[in-house]
Amino acid sequence: MDTTVGIGLLGAGTIGGTLIRRLVQEHDAIATKTGLDLQVRRVAVRDPAKRRAFDLPAELLTSDPAAVVADPAVQLIVEVMGGQTPAGDLVLSALRAGKPVVTANKALIAARGPELIAAAEESGVSLLFEAAVGGGIPIIRPLSETLAGEQVERVVGIVNGTTNFILTKMAEEGADYATALAEAQELGYAEPDPTADVSGADAADKAAILASLAFGTWVGPDQVYHEGIENLSAEDLAYAAELGYVVKLLAFAVRTPAGVSARVHPAMLPADHPLATIRGATNAIFIEGPSIGELLFAGPGAGGEPTATAVLGDVIDAARELLAGAQVAPRIQFSPSALVDFGDITTKWYVRLEVADRPGVLSRIAGEFGRADVSIKSVRQEGEGEGAVLLIVTHRAPEVRQRAAVQSLHDLDEVRSVGAVIRVESAEA
Amino acid sequence: MDTTVGIGLLGAGTIGGTLIRRLVQEHDAIATKTGLDLQVRRVAVRDPAKRRAFDLPAELLTSDPAAVVADPAVQLIVEVMGGQTPAGDLVLSALRAGKPVVTANKALIAARGPELIAAAEESGVSLLFEAAVGGGIPIIRPLSETLAGEQVERVVGIVNGTTNFILTKMAEEGADYATALAEAQELGYAEPDPTADVSGADAADKAAILASLAFGTWVGPDQVYHEGIENLSAEDLAYAAELGYVVKLLAFAVRTPAGVSARVHPAMLPADHPLATIRGATNAIFIEGPSIGELLFAGPGAGGEPTATAVLGDVIDAARELLAGAQVAPRIQFSPSALVDFGDITTKWYVRLEVADRPGVLSRIAGEFGRADVSIKSVRQEGEGEGAVLLIVTHRAPEVRQRAAVQSLHDLDEVRSVGAVIRVESAEA
Description:
Two copies of one chain form a homodimer. Chain A has helices spanning 14-25, 27-34, 65-70, 87-96, 106-123, 140-146, 161-173, 177-186, 195-198, 201-215, 234-242, 304-324, 361-371, 399-409; strands at residues 4-10, 37-44, 61-62, 76-79, 101-103, 127-128, 154-158, 225-226, 245-256, 259-270, 282-289, 293-300, 346-355, 376-382, 388-394, 397-398, 415-424. The first copy, chain A, has three domains: 4-135 and 304-324, Rossmann fold, CATH 3.40.50; 152-298, Dihydrodipicolinate Reductase, domain 2; 342-424, 2-Layer Sandwich (Alpha-Beta Plaits). The radius of gyration of chain A is 24 Å and the shape is elongated. Chain A is an alpha/beta fold. Chains A and B meet through helix 2, helix 6, strand 12 and helix 12 of A and helix 2, helix 6, strand 12 and helix 12 of B.
């Protein structure tokens, strides 16, 4: 039996370059373990003349990605160029041509998942994207295969290594946001333009994918509320520590009787929560369900090597599919489901206020919370006189009410400023 | 397209009964999510007259498991009767008849894996066993699919919930072994005959399976050194805590240039090691490789509900395979590899000695370690006079040398007894 599978790559940056190097260097080890002869046949890059970290004949490189998709020697496409254009249409045309596609492109899957999955189904080939969430952590397969029979209720995780690296620096070294970001950029953990990571948009794409697979209903990235870490200060991280919390950027996918929801925002976690202990660029994801209880997956959330391992696992699966002549990817049927509006989600808030330290100030502030029907769990004053700071933690209430309460504080003379607002994630009400 | 798949079960105990209940109760939810109409067609039980926790027409029950395998209405077999006989031959005949098999039977897979996998390959159907290791934790698929392209170096885990429950009781409540075991039995965490769990034999089956899948070379359970928890005392767990360690029963699968090895034994872990924090019946498994770094999987290692979720995930996959007409399970090719003898494995030892507190005793004891070429990392004396206790922790040395050293201590007049020996697992040499 011919076990050779011709692979075409769209992109040869960090992930793609690492993948090519391993497909070449570990060709025999992979063949021994899987019985597959994986051959890189064509690679689309922006600049074919550039020096590369892998060793391939120059004629395999091209600047025309469509030529890779169309190449009859290419049976399987690996899309690691990123972005939606032109990646999306290239993936679509590969699937329509009956070529299975492996991608690490979370933005593309989040934005055009239903369309691409439908095209794959129609052609009877797989669209695999294990590396799109959690980097090297196997999470897509466990969620869509092993847990296919579980009525998953909640997925919560740290799914962006860049922001977790920055928050770890800020919490452990007291660094301010700008300094921690600059260090992350220097070390290659953050892009020169860090917006997608620090704004929570990257995590929102991943939350959308996790929610869609966990609940079997497609959640688009525009349906995911997201808030980034740009406004977090070392001061608030230090106050959080005093109160027994650690601040993390969390992605949530939740199903309740009212519907499903997904969101991304910084959250204070009790210091002994397993996610609070996840440091640096590591990712970690909890999956909760009525039968399974709690599952935890943790590992390297980014980086060329771990991500290339996840892509390679998908490539091996897609190659097996080509030889077997039948689709290996699980077919999740997406059904419509109600989406819960973010304003109706109940959360607890930490609010830092700069106040004038005068008699009656707490009573007036508490009055505003009360009028918005939000009850206060704890208040702590730091400093005195004109520089006094109040740290307020509320009980659970719908977002709309929390916002109304904090909005009304702006009108109080005694409140100099609302310094920060961070949601608190803990088991109690 | 007909999406109905007829399922036959061999066994309807805790796992099988839970699975049947869910296949019936959640039939429509599963159909919505997967597009599959899963029908329980025949169930083999020891006593068809017994009351069951699930609702099936009485005529579906039979005491003849071979009749379930042979039933033409049954396309897919779920083996959850456990044990090797008659389960092994029933699974083999199902595979030979072209029926995919899902099993949770670690003892069977460890003992007859190569034969059963070969039979599955020959018939072009899948043999799936996600539930055989780690209960509800997805570990078999990630290891054999997502990590198919990783040169895994080491798998270390807590893979037996019963012993971890007992050790947690002993460590946290100072309970002695017999008391903790009795409580585990009362709560249903331990069998009336707990031998398979407490002796490490169950964990050894799982270590054999993990090593085989991780390294692509079949390791039989008789090639796995195993040592149980029966001789651990509350005293040693308390001493371990004083020294900054927690004792866990660990399964190891390791690849070195000299070959592969698998072993199970109690081990002292630094208290801040992630596995040291795994409490009760929870399981947790680390996978380490050059590209992936470290992956951690944690969750419920046993129990009807979580295990049934893992079995159900496999059933859904096997049903998809039947409809697609091609094998979904990854084909791992097993190649021969050198096995490293346990005596050549280097470990560190904790040794508790009851000694006569006389001048020169430490020198004579240290002399014996020196003669065996084992160097001592730390010595601590507890108590004085005739009841003195020495706690010795050695540096890394091959097992054979550690054993020779401890053996020679028996001959010293000053050594009243060798109270305990526990291996120490930490990063340093």
